[in-house]
Amino acid sequence: MVSIENEDTLTSTRRRETALACVRAGIDAARPDRVVDESVRLDGDRLHVAGTEYDLSDVDRIVAVGGGKAADGVADALERVLGDRIDAGAVVTPDPGEGERIERLHGDHPVPSQDGVDGTDRIRELVAEADERTLVLAIITGGGSALLPAPAEGITLDDLQRTTDALLDAGAEIGDLNAVRKHLSTLKGGGLAELAAPATVVSLVFSDVVGNDLSVIASGPTAPDESTYDDALDALERYGVDPPTAVRKRLEAGAAGDLPETPRPGDEVFDRVTNHILADGFTALDAAREVAQERDYDTSILSSSVRGEAREAALTHVAVAEEIEATGNPIEAPAVVLSGGEATATVRGDGVGGPNAEFALAAAVELPDSSTLACVDTDGRDGSSDFAGAVVDGDTVDDVRAARQALGNSDAYGYLGSRDAIVSTGATGTNVNDLRVLVVE
């Protein structure tokens, strides 16, 4: 079960206690040990994954590879299910543990590192040995885009780092960011499936992407890609990013038709590939809703797809709280309104912030006294901070001017820390996007 630091201080009211209970339940429901145990089982030579059966009698070798923030936990769970049926494997993750059959390798997020490059090279070695009697279990989880860098020819790690940094600072949405990364990498955008062919590839996916687009989750290493070099160039232009010369040169060469595109839908490299989404944002929302209902709250899931600038989306949640209080619509108090998705936060200063912190602080400025709002990133790391998010009430902000200054300097945590509002969990071992719990008494 996820642990929340300073929980006694944070749960000073019934509303706060309910909000954090919902947060905990949501994160726990998406933890790899629980998800894999419910979705994957071995019955003799029959491997069952999310209702699909795979005959292992025709398989000579099982290799498990992948990466992301939940990859270590998924690897642990697979070792428990398959044991010595796993012949080899490697995953790249920010906090690697110890594995018996699957190597655990370190990588960095959200900006790729040399460790990640080295770990990805090991995965490439393992997959390159696959043949038609190999089963590749691909562990694809949120954060895999940064953790599995494999720079394309002519692109250096520094090129990737600078481009990624600039897009993140500009508040680029994940689809745009990944359109660029897929065209600068050899494994993304179906590259892992292409390398593994003609092996059977079964992907175990933990989605941190609005809409569960397989081509976007971890930049889609086992999924067909419909983005193009032109799309990547367009993303750089729209966010005002001037990339390193090598990056622009490669993207322009691809747009001119001088480089092959990523594998498209219908490509034969996907003939023996199956992708299973085992957990997503709704996994967390559904578990949070169950806790709220057990506590006799009327509940509503506003959306699992909230996106856009965090400080703007926050005002919608304030409006919902106001409407419940004033008219009893869309549900009557006591109520819990839940939402997920992935908001963004454009960096405007040099403070410590993140999308969930900005969401919480922007809401707190106008939140009714009857309401509490908890906003967390389910991976335990909001943006580039070391915090999961925050829990705020209508009285959290006692100095509106100071709160707005903090937002203007991208320093939401600077303000919220002084108000004992920060939720800190450490790395949770999973990643299914943001989770927000609005409690109205």
Automatic annotation (TrEMBL):
TM ranges: none
Gene3D superfamilies listed in its UniProt record: Glycerate kinase, MOFRL-like N-terminal domain (3.40.50.10180), MOFRL domain (3.40.1480.10)
One GO cellular component term noted in the UniProt record for this chain: cytoplasm
Any Pfam family matching the protein: MOFRL
Residue stretches making up the MOFRL-associated domain: 19-252
Keyword Isomerase assigned: no
InterPro entries per the UniProt record, alphabetical: GK-like_C_sf (IPR037035), GK_N_sf (IPR038614), MOFRL (IPR007835), MOFRL_assoc_dom (IPR025286), MOFRL_protein (IPR039760)
An annotated Gene Ontology molecular function: glycerate kinase activity
Domain MOFRL, chain residue ranges per copy: 336-434
Disordered: region residues: 93-118
Biased composition (Basic and acidic residues): 98-109
Keyword list, A-Z: Pyruvate
Keyword match Ribosomal protein: no
PANTHER family in alphabetical order: GLYCERATE KINASE (PTHR12227)
UniProt name for this protein: DUF4147 domain-containing protein
Organism: Haloplanus aerogenes
Upper classification of the organism: Archaea, Methanobacteriati, Methanobacteriota, Stenosarchaea group, Halobacteria
